[in-house]
């Protein structure tokens, strides 16, 4: 892959769903489907919205190790990124990724205490395409 940021970034931008994995209190991996990231900075930093009361937030507060996965089913290719998650509850972070229509999920609006931001920062990745995988550092 000549330019991982461009190749993977273009793929991610076309997808509607992503997957986030975390470690539960018993040490087992859990994977959850998420909407696509609200923002991304290259393929290093991703911003997601979620409920503060969710199990994943509880787990991230205990263990911030995570991975996110994006799959393009049409072309049978995907990328797994490994890194850490910060749970952000600042007004600045919430306003940064707030979108019109979010009151469907967070009834009290941008100040809803059950609304927070997950900031994922990748350290490395693995890309799969054309029946082969390729590891890369970020």
What is this structure's SSE topology?
Blueprint: H1 4-14, E1 17-23, E2 29-35, E3 39-41, E4 45-51, H2 55-62, E5 65-72, E6 77-88, H3 91-97, E7 115-129, E8 132-137
Antiparallel strand pairs: 1-2, 1-5, 3-4, 4-7, 5-6, 6-7, 7-8
Structure, described:
The protein has 138 residues and is an alpha+beta fold. Helix content is 19%, strand content 47%. The chain has three helices and eight strands. The protein has helices spanning 4-14, 55-62, 91-97; strands at 17-23, 29-35, 39-41, 45-51, 65-72, 77-88, 115-129, 132-137. Strands 1, 2, 3, 4, 5, 6, 7 and 8 form an eight-stranded antiparallel β-sheet that branches. The radius of gyration is 15 Å and the shape is globular.
Task: Characterize this entry briefly.
The protein is of the alpha+beta class. It has helices spanning 4-14, 55-62, 91-97, and strands at 17-23, 29-35, 39-41, 45-51, 65-72, 77-88, 115-129, 132-137.
């Amino acid at each position: 892959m000549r330019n991982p940021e461009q190749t993977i970034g273009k793929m991610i931008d076309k997808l509607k769903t992503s997957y986030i994995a975390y470690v539960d209190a018993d040490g087992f991996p859990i994977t959850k489907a998420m909407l696509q990231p609200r923002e991304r900075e290259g393929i290093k930093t991703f911003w997601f919205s979620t409920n503060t009361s969710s199990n994943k937030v509880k787990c991230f507060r205990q263990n911030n190790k995570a991975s996110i996965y994006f799959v393009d089913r049409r072309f049978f290719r995907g990328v797994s990124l490994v890194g850490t998650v910060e749970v952000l509850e600042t007004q600045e972070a919430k306003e940064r990724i707030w979108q019109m229509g979010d009151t469907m999920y967070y009834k009290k609006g941008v100040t809803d205490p059950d609304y927070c931001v997950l900031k994922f920062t990748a350290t490395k990745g693995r890309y799969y395409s054309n029946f082969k995988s390729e590891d890369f550092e970020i």
